[in-house]
Amino acid sequence: MSAGWRKGKTARESRSIFAHLAGGWALVARKPQLLLLLAVAQFLLALVPALLVQNSAAEHLDALAGFQGEAELDFLGAVPQWLFEDWRRADRSLAASVQNSLAPMLLLSSLFGLCLSAGWMNLAVRGRSLRGIGPFFLGAGRFFFPFLRTWLLALGLYALVTWLVWYGPGQSLAQKWLPGGDFDHPTSENWVRRLQQSREGLYLLLIFLVELTVDLSRASLVVGHRRSALLSLVRGFGQLLSHPIRVVGLSLSGLAVEAALLLAATGWLLRRPEDLWLLVLLLPILRIAARAARQASLATLYAEWRLSTSPDTLENRDPFDDGTAWRTGADG
Amino acid sequence: MLPVPMARTLGAVLALALFGPKTIAQEQPAATSKPAVAGTLAPAAKTLRYHLQVRLQEDGRTIDGTCRLTWRNPTEQATSELRFHVYNNAWADWNSVWLRQARMFESQPRRPRAWGETTLHRVRLIESGATEGKTQGEEDPEDAGQELPWHYLAQPPAPGPGPGGPMDRTVAQLTLPQPVAGGDRITVEWEFTTVMPPAFRRSGSDGRGGYLHAVQWYPKLGVFEVPEGGGPAHWNCLPYHYLTEFYADFADFQVELTLPERYLGKVGATGSLLSDPERQADGGWLHRFSATNVHDFAWTADPDFLVFQRSFQARDHRDQTEEEKVAKALGKHPSEVVPGSTQMILLLQPEHREYRERYFHAMAKTIYYYGLWYGPYPYETITLVDPASDARATGGMEYPRLVTGGVYKGNPERWLQPEGITVHEVGHQFWYGMVANDEFHHAWLDEGFNSYSTHRVLDKAWPPQRQTYDVWEHRRYGRRPAPAPAFAGNDARSFLSLESLPWPAVDPWLPSGQLALRHHGSLEVFLAELPFLTYYPEVERHAFYGLRSSFDFHWNDPLAKPSYQVLGWEMRTVNGYRRPALMLESLARLMGEEAWIRTLRDFYQSWRFGHPRPADFAQTLQIHGEGLGLRASHEAFLPLDWSSLWNQLYFENAGLDFAVKRLLNQPSVTDAKKIDGFADPETGPWDVTVEVIRLGDFRAPVQVEILWQDGQREWHLWDGQTNWWRFHQENSPRRVQQVIVDPQRQWLLDRNWLNNSLRDRPERKRSRATGLRTLLWAQQIVHYFGGLG
Description:
A: mainly alpha; B: alpha+beta; five-stranded mixed sheet; 14 helices
């Protein structure tokens, strides 16, 4: 299945979401060195807390002898709780160290994700035929600050959704629906559980929709070569409302692939716990690839809509566009 | 409704009244370790009898009526006053000792939803005088019932958890016209009204006229006794303290309880129902209960209760190995130690229907094992209450013949809830219900003994508890490899994990504040951390080892400190529950199972229906520990000094921490004239050195195990009196592979087990596996955040 765009065709075919997703995977698969590089970067972000834990374990656990009649300590399967608790007491600063070292990595990761998103989207829309990893980084740099502005807007949306569901109106509604109206002294445990489950489900759904909107807004920035984050957010939301099935379907399909990978990894680890090191190496690559394919396919989907409405305006806007990707249609 | 054949119950009551409690027991072992308490009369007629006639109003929380009690002075000392507990006034206003202490101990003190109160209207003298020549309970019907003066006991306010201030109303003092001499009897009758609060701490209602848990609801006589250190008898009747529970004498209760119609058939109580409820003219239903040889009367009612009854039969829960072990220790046939039957009653909330079998199973296992180890449960019934959802504060409590459990939905089998709480509360029937210690001063004598016993039952009857995490209101097995970042909303670091955006104050324009960016719910945690992939799947919590969580706290007070005077709630939990349970299990391992079985059974049988004190247990320990000690290889033996151990365990507060400091396998000198005249490090011979140190001040004897490379194990003994111990051997043909101090894990009080052993060659795969799993976990979180925003 061709992953390229065919400008010039008289009939504006819309490809299926699965075709877009396959195209995204094909793009990603052609950049193994990039995947590896990104996986190494993510590896490094996660490495610090892991090293802290390993060093502490080496000091406190490696020299521990096994007691007769007790299971061998291997840390791959069953581990006694007392050991974790004694370890925590013996190294009281470890927990704080792990938390303090991981926290900044999370913010970095979120910002790093902007670069990745920009890079993959730009590659998908403009650089399919280009070799090497340079176009990825060009796109990442080109669109980082516009994406950062969408990121800031996204945080605002998160806060709004959080307030809606867990504070203010959400809390008032929940108390109104809860028999007795008091979460501390509910008259029915079932009601509390259902309410809390519903709120969590609704919250995640809204966050998912916010993410979709933000991804679409980024796609619009890349495809349309625009700068305004606020307007792009509005456009993204508009596209979500216009094509909800395709957008949600595409995203869920991509997530389903990733979920299948994770389930396969879990099954593998259960059967062969000694292969933990292999998962540590392979899983990040696969998950980065899955996310990249989703984002790339979303960008091409957006481009397809854009092309179908005003194809001629695109051509002269992008200084990075060499015209080949849009015209050749070859996967090259 | 609890239908019990009237004749059988009345017969039992009559038998008890005439002959005392021993007719219920199936055995009467010799009390080997119970000396007479100086100043106390020999047991004769019953000490205490209550007759309560009360009515619950339509509001479902107001109880009014009368409380008539007959008391016989069990000491040699006369008294001109009676003191009563009025525990329910702890919720009457903020002046109570309990609430004032709550504000001192809790950083965010809880508040009652509404006040509760017991109003004592008046008290009359019914009868007094010598007991000789009179049938117990006989009164002069022509006595007019002289009203007696009384007042709430004013005590000087004191800092800290001391006696109550002048406005605490949880102790009432009644002044008598004539002293009650030793052995004499008095009967008084209170008229009172109790309003139970919405469930707050251990007692109350749901606040809607439904569920009601009536405990400490009547004026309850304190205990007149000779104090611990000797001297004249006094009233042991403290105000209701935040850190302690209750204490009272054994009594017979006759309770006539009239309830609104909606509670018909939905009542549980300490006693047995004597007959079917009788409809009253005003529409209420009269329930007549009777309970003998109990020191409290509690009852509960809820129109929503599902009522289940089941007979406990030992044959359904046999543990043959355990029966044979107990029988052998006691010199009996196994059939002689199997506990008898009783009726189990479960009052269950409809929403917890699925827990019915788990509740019953836990009750049965408790009755079986406690009965096997200590003696049969002597009462006709045991009632377990599942509290209402809006009255969970009444859960997890014990009263004679009636206990409350509590459970949340979504608990898997290996999480052992409600099993844990059920075993513990039902187990209190033995430790607290029958061996009735002074909970003000020695809470550990019931909580500690019961915690120990609870964990023994859990260990026997269920597989080990597994750690769980919560996802979408369900518990799943697993434990996260490392703590995830979680900061308070006003902590600047919370922005790093995109949880909130705090800002500082900018005077005078902007106060400090924070904006919540995300809600860290269990579903999001699930998606970010992928626990099914990254968590440790099976983390098991051994029954006793889990109690080592008490080492999270500094032990500020010795066990001897009166319970109501310890530093705070943490110390109450440590000193009341976990520390004594660890201590008892340690003693069990030191003494050996058979001697320990005899020790505990003797202590229980001696003090059943009595009030033991710590010195009584120490004496029992000394008797049965005589001649016991630690063994080592080569027939070495070190006798244990129980007196010294007890002093350290009970009166002192020293920490116990053995550590292997060094294990060295040094190549031996093969040629003393050569600078490098040493043996090959791989083939030997070696000069081996093992050093074990004592980091804490607790001095205890301990075994040290040396495992040689050829697989042979040697046990050595160290008396623990010095600060360290060394083993050194030169020119050994074999290396020492590992050293373990306390190889049998006898000292559960050892604060740190990680330093109890040392391998010659570390096992690096452990730290690698730990690091890898943490890395896998961190990778997923980092990846999740890479797509966030």
